Amino acid sequence: MEILHISAECYPVAKVGGLGDVVGALPKYQHQLGSIAKVVIPAYRTKYFETHEFDVVHQAGMWLGHDWYHFNVLKERSNELGFDLYLVDIPGLLDTPGVYGYPNDTERFLAFQIAVLDWINEWQHLPDVIHCHDHHTGLIPFLLSYGYKYTRLKEVPSVLTIHNAQYQGQFGWDKLYLIPSFDLWKSGLLDWGGAINPLAAAIKCAWRVTTVSPGYLEELFSNANGLESLISHERGKTIGILNGIDTLVWDPSIDTMLPLNYDIDTVNEGKQENKQRLCERFGLDSSLPLISFIGRLVGDKGADLLPEIISRSLHELPGEVNFLVLGSGEPHVEWSLQQTRQTVSYGFNVHIGYNEPLSHLIYAGSDFLLMPSRVEPCGLNQLYALRYGTVPMVRSTGGLKDTVVDFGDKNGFGIRFNQAGVWDVCYSVKRAIELYHDTTHLQAVRLQGMRIDHSWGSSAQQYLDMYNSMK
Ligand SMILES: Nc1ncnc2c1ncn2[C@@H]1O[C@H](COP(=O)(O)OP(=O)(O)O[C@H]2O[C@H](CO)[C@@H](O)[C@H](O)[C@H]2O)[C@@H](O)[C@H]1O
Which in 145, 146, 406, 414 has the greatest CB count within 10 A? Predict the structure, then answer.
């Protein structure tokens, strides 16, 4: 079976968050299960792009509204990722250093989708499945079915995976002229709430719709940023498949980004050494419990709560706990974390920015990883934390609820709280400190978490079973 994954991110080529992790891993594991999995993303000017060699496999041009763009499809030469990687290079649109956040993102990702479709249209054979990820690729299922240029691709099954339904990629009907011509009687399929909504269009048109955890799918029926009724209507073709983690990248025993590697037998020494380095670097006291946060500093992740959680905890429990934050995102959250850093004299530090090696050190060197998410479709951080012997502290929502059991329950290995609110989190901080001092219990909780298998094996198989069900 040949699967083409189409995405805006793919680790280690271009990653902003969890989408990149999944698209960089799932195809590798599908390959191991005997499928041919290919990935196509835009050719941003990332470090990976600059330091690897590519062959041009397709050259063409296209209209985006009234503008003409040349584009190339490049294939990475060494195949080092464990799947075929293709990059769509569109000078003037996709040759940016970053992935998102440009004023013409709508045009950039529309052009990407058109280029990918034009390219597949030229293949001698057809893929068995076209697998689209998130709204940046959401118009593809629609165009496969109704785009006049793509009638040859009409029968190719399409899948949409929703990594986060908060982001839908809406744009106004005034930009309709940018979309390649299609059967206008079908325009309603593009619409949601009076705008062109790529995520909604994909939910309507894809043959199957998956979410990245079963719990998140259940939540979407009642809370989907305006798409609840649509998802409920399409319920019959939906399925929740829990993300796995790439155990070749996320393994404390071989992770080259750690000063000291460790495994389940050497976890205490390993974590102690990594914690020591981390605390030295950030001016923290390594004898105290260390609670960290890694992620996009946005409301969905509960990042706006962090300044108050941290200052209140340090005020109520002086000299009892440390906090460390790594992230970037909304400017007011960044600003208020930096303000907090200046006002509390000890016990807290923050690194604003994106830093992959530092994230690995934090997973290894922290005692607890805090995730006060308001919305969490799956969450990968808690799975990485578990593998690194770090106890996740999570709000009971979406994929966090599916993957973390409170240590107060039988065989539990994490800390759960119900509300994304300062009081609930501060209470959990107290529980974390108590657990930290109960060394026997902490050790049992840690080992319990480390033993859990969150590798891609069974989830990759579930995707294959789902593809087969479309035949
Ligand atoms: N400043 C920083 N420096 C270094 N690394 C950083 C970083 N900020 C974030 N990361 C890394 O980015 C990834 C974040 O993954 P998540 O799954 O938690 O979030 P995201 O919301 O992006 O993904 C969406 O898609 C994924 C995948 O389906 C879902 O798990 C998730 O719930 C959904 O919101 C992790 O690898 C984390 O270590």
Answer: 414
